[in-house]
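Lab notebook page, bench 4
Experiment: in silico fold of construct C2
Operator: M.H.
Input chain length: 291 residues
Purpose: comparison with the prior construct
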Amino acid sequence: MRRGSIILVIMVMTMSACSQAASTNESTKQSDNNQPQTGELILVKGGTFIDTKSNFFGHSINLPDYYIGQYEVTQREWIEIMGGNPSQFKGSNLPVEMVSWYDAITYCNKRSVAEGLKPYYTIDKDNKDPNNKSEHDTVKWTVTINEGANGYRLPTEAEWEYAASGGQLSNSYTYSGGNEPDEVSWNWRNAGTKYLSGDWAWPNIESNRNTTKPIGGKKPNELGLYDMSGNVREWVWGWYGDGLDNSSGSLQIVKGGGWLGDVVSTEVSYRGKFEANGFGPDQGFRVVRSK
């Protein structure tokens, strides 16, 4: 074959490949009301818990399929929907923090509306939630679920733990993605200028300049989810009650630990708790959508 013909064939093949790539790219950007955009949410295939270290292992819980954020909600995403940025540590690719449970619920509804989805929550700011037993929460909005809505929401504790443990691909790791915390999480020991040892101590953390980190900096778990151990603690839907009963209580459940917390709090099974109207520089969230 002559040289000119070879070049022509290569050019045609290259143009064809580019055309296919552009077509594939375009298809991943498109979404209808039930299909999240590729790269933002990960499909979690439902089922029963196979993670032997989970709080829900051995219980008769069978979750349906759902989508969950591959990363914690970033400051860029927050600003696009909410306008301002409450975070202490500023950076578009850092997780948003300094947000309360009510802030997270509000974001979910506003993002749903912005994307043409039906909001998952009805927020009644005029009537106090009878299930909120806190003596310190001055907000106490009554937040109820719109059954069948396709909008964004917080994961339930079971959904969060199922996804963090790898769902049906779970290897029963202690942390989300492995058994070595420094490989998969940002915690008080490794989130500063040097690695800390010994017992947890706030003066050491403060002088070490610990901060949040850009999303996705550690190894993902079996489902390709990042930072479910460490970086920031994550709000979920449900009160911290006795056992796994979370229908009422004084504190909302938080999961996953964070840059400020001890390593044990980054374990998948760890159950944290926080005032619903509380917020801190280690407090963020990720979103879920029903399939």
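Observations: The radius of gyration is 21 Å. The domain at 36-291 is CATH 3.90.1580.10 (paralog of FGE (formylglycine-generating enzyme)).
Next step: discuss at group meeting.
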